[in-house]
Automatic annotation (TrEMBL):
Full protein name: Uncharacterized protein
Region of interest called Disordered, as start-end residue ranges on this chain: 360-388
InterPro entries: TPR-like_helical_dom_sf (IPR011990), TPR_rpt (IPR019734)
Bias (Low complexity) ranges: 376-388
Swiss-Prot/TrEMBL TPR repeat ranges: 210-243
Organism: Emiliania huxleyi (Coccolithophore)
Keywords: TPR repeat
SMART domains given in the database record: TPR (SM00028)
Length: 398
């Protein structure tokens, strides 16, 4: 295969990736080679079994035609899914996030319909429903699984980018896509038992795992979920530790920075737990002191109010007794008897009310404002009382 150099703008790499994605598990062997010096004709492939050259293999559709010439069967949905995903990446690089999101969504639906992964109840819900695989395609290849994981990762990043434009729940959607990518890796381990046999497939699987866990950590951080970010970073650094000699220098530096972020998150979470525990203890102490203080004050207020009521009622009783003595009428009149009975009832009602309702401290002001003022005089006709109850019972007394 030619066209891998800069003279073809590196299009050979993308063509090789499309061929590996569309190729069945067995029957087709793909190899890269040096330039065939046909850059003016796009990416050029050569079929080793016939020696035939195929020109302008620049997209998924033309790559599928080459595979069909070699006798392989290619699902049309996979062709469209791959091409739509590539268009989504182009929109993403250009900053057209909404168009990229639409393209990624269609690519995911086509890939799932073709049987690359489990079916979700709803997209982008994180609840999985694994269906029995149907159709001729069989289990996906390692390349197909890695492509789908990376597609979900790219769509998750687009959702995060849209969160800054006021999109409702975009951060949550980003988290759900990242969770789906991680779940897809876990589920596909069972149907890819031979992926470790091929060194290239094994490395591709590790790269996809690292991308999925990294995106999950970033999505948790966007939602301020530090605990979730810690778990995701731990998984990421197990797959690709900073001192892994296979990592390129820029990626090794990035993993080293993420290790520092993980340490910072752990310390921050521990400090927050200590502060929370201290606040809880302090609040419990304050609550206990406040409860005791409020109870003591409430009892003092009730006792003070009871004394005021007793004084008011005692004053009314004395006023009634003085009236009887001042009139010189021997036995108490019908008014005096009725007033004394009313006063006794009032005392019982007031005592009961003061015991049951501790929060009606304002009643003391109203009761004290009704305190009777009695002017003693040797003449019965000069007796005056400001009590409203007295005036209501016998107006001639007031």
């Amino acid at each position: 295969m030619g066209g891998e150099g800069m003279c073809s703008v590196g299009a050979g790499d993308s063509t090789l990736a499309a061929l590996r994605f569309l190729a069945p598990r067995d029957g087709v062997v793909l190899n890269g080679c040096s330039c065939l010096a046909r850059c003016d004709r796009g990416v050029v492939l050569q079929l080793t079994n016939t020696g035939e050259f195929v020109e302008r293999v620049n997209d998924a559709a033309s790559a599928a035609d080459v595979l069909r010439r070699a006798g392989a069967e290619v699902d049309p949905r996979l062709i469209e899914a791959y091409g739509t995903g590539e268009r989504g990446s182009e929109h993403d690089e250009e900053g057209r996030l909404t168009e990229a999101l639409d393209a990624y969504g269609r690519a995911v639906r086509l890939a799932l319909a073709a049987g690359l992964g489990p079916q979700w109840r709803s997209l982008p819900s994180s609840v999985l429903r694994v269906r029995e695989r149907r159709g001729r395609a069989g289990a996906p290849t390692a390349e197909q699984a890695a492509w789908l994981v990376q597609l979900l990762v790219r769509r998750s990043r687009v959702y995060t980018g849209l969160s800054g434009q006021g999109w409702v729940r975009s951060r949550q959607r980003a988290l759900e896509d990242a969770q789906q990518a991680v779940q897809l890796l876990t589920l596909l381990d069972a149907v890819l038992p031979d992926s470790r046999a091929d060194a290239a497939a094994a490395r591709l699987s590790e790269e996809s795992r690292a991308l999925a866990w990294e995106r999950l950590a970033e999505a948790h951080e966007a939602l301020r979920d530090i605990s979730g970010a810690i778990l995701a970073y731990e998984q990421l650094l197990r797959i690709e530790p900073p001192d892994d000699p296979r990592l390129a220098p820029p990626l090794a530096v990035k993993r080293g920075i993420q290790e520092l972020v993980l340490i910072s998150h752990r310390r921050g979470l521990a400090d927050a737990a200590e502060v929370r525990e201290g606040l809880q203890q302090g609040l419990q102490q304050v609550e206990q002191v406040s409860r005791e203080t409020l109870t003591r004050r409430a009892l003092e207020d009730v006792e003070s109010l009871r004394r005021v009521v007793d004084e008011d009622i005692g004053l009314l009783e004395r006023a009634a007794a003085e009236y009887e003595i001042g009139t010189g009428r021997g036995p108490r009149s019908s008014f005096a008897s009725r007033a004394m009975r009313d006063l006794s009832t009032l005392r019982k009602v007031a005592s009961s009310a003061m015991s049951m309702r501790c929060d009606e401290h304002g009643a003391a002001g109203r009761l004290s404002s009704q305190r009777p003022l009695v002017n003693r005089s040797p003449s019965p006709t000069s007796t005056r009382c400001s009590s409203r109850s007295c005036a209501a019972t016998r107006p001639s007394l007031c």
